[in-house]
Amino acid sequence: MMSVTASRGALALMRVFFGLLVVFLYVPIAVLAIFSFNDGDVSFPLQGFTTDWYRRALSNAVLLGALQRSAIVATASSAIAVALGILAAYLLLRRRFVGKPAVSALLFSPLVIPYLVFGVSLLILFTAADKFLAATTGREIGLGLHAVVIGHVVVSLPYTVLTIMPMLERLSLSLDEAARDLGAGAWQTFRRITLPLLTPAIVSAFLIAFTLSFDEYAIASFLAGTESTWPVYLFAQLRIPSQLPQLVAVSSVILLVSLALVLAAEIGRRVVERRYEPVRLEGTVVTSAPGGEMAGAGA
Fold first, then answer.
1. pTM of the complete model
2. Does the residue 45 lie in any domain?
3. For 38-75, what is each residue's pLDDT tens digit?
């Protein structure tokens, strides 16, 4: 009996759906890029070609400051989230402990909590902490980029764990056992065997966390204080029609940079996977470590 998905009608329907999906996703992006070179307002008909909006954006110190702050927050929160994600994934997959389901549920709870609610909660938490510290020590944590980093780490952590766990689950425990048999300690085994094999997942997790943090608005709007990030600045400037072309130009540049990062990450992932791909030789799994040593385990 022919499968429903293998029938001609179903295949044609899937092609139409995929085509509409591509149009829905990429036509607005193309229109955005076109308007960034329009010598006029962001509206049809087009009034001519110009690169003046890019020049004005590059001379806008407030706009560049918001971009810089977003880049700093995204880089810091992504690095912390990936480091914690590696530890959390290793703990959930390779260790047994009491309360494991509760820890897992708590770890993934940010996936179902609205960012608006989470932002308000963090604002209340930081405010209460500042009052307590001011009364006891005379110091305050305050709002700012550090508060945004903390919030973004919390919401990015589940995504990094979910990205790293499948790759870690695919790694055979026999690799660790072989490394220990050859005299490697736990840290050396992780650093020279496990970590290189996890590199593709780590890069993917970092990019996901970076994108999530760079574009996040709700939490940053509550915690940034006077140090507005790019999304907060963008939403504030949308009320000013004269600033819209500059925002469109910057958004086009961010889009191109994002595509370049994704392409570079994909190329790097394939290179790393080819370098550390396990090879079976006469019933033995062999993998190359960065230092050139070989670790083997019986199949």
1. 0.78
2. no
3. 877 777 777 778 888 888 888 889 889 999 999 999 99
DSSP label at residue 287: E
In a domain, 11, yes or no: no
Q: H-helix or E-strand containing 296? A: strand 294-298
Domain assignment of residue 87, yes or no: yes
Q: What is the CATH number of the domain that holds 179?
A: 1.10.3720.10
Number of domains in the chain: 1
For residue 47, give the 3-state DSSP assignment.
Answer: coil
Using the structure block, give the residue that is written with the tokens 């389901």: 101
Burial (CB count <10 Å: 0-12, 13-18, 19+), residue 140: middle
Amino acid identity of 202? I
Residue with tokens 């999906």: 21
Do the beta carbons of residue 218 and residue 115 sit within 8 Å? yes
DSSP 40: S
Q: Identify whether 23 is part of a domain.
A: no
